[in-house]
Amino acid sequence: MDFKIKVSAEIKSTENLEKVKKSILNIFPDLKVEERDNEVIGSSEEEDVLSRFIELAYSEAIRDSVNMVLKEGSRGNKISFSINKQAAYAGRLNLSKESPLGPIRIKIYVEEPYDFIDKMIPKTI
Q1: How confident is the model at residue 1 (pLDDT cuts 50, 70, 90)?
Q2: Domain range for residue 77?
């Protein structure tokens, strides 16, 4: 299945670059990230990059919520969603757009988003 993920997070003036990188890498440890124009960005075409994200959805018992949020963010061949930066820094998965420091923004490009989501994070009910 053709797949591409793009991850980005703005670095606010009060934030530390390394902490923003750590936030992203706590959720996507295999992602190669770099700083560009006050932003940390990364991308990959390897589905394995989602393994920690999926593991957290299972271990935190939020599969149904994650499935729903990802489907709500599906448009065409793109899935868009956000993760709370502070929660990610602590190694937790919180799919929330509300954050004083701004979110980590994720875009996944895949041909059949709903099938991909159901395969990646199936609902429990």
Answers
A1: low
A2: 3-120
Q: CATH no. for residue 34?
A: 3.30.1440.10
Q: List the beta bridge partners of residue 3.
A: 110
> Maximum CA pair distance of the chain?
43
Quick one: three-class SS letters along 22-91? Answer: HHHHHHCCCCEEEECCCEEEEEECCHHHHHHHHHHHHHCCCHHHHHHHHHHCEECCEEEEEECHHHHHCC
pTM score of the predicted model: 0.92
Residues contacting residue 75 through CB under 8 Å, at least 6 positions apart: none
Q: Compute the distance between CA of residue 101 and CA of residue 78 in angstroms, rounded to an integer.
A: 25
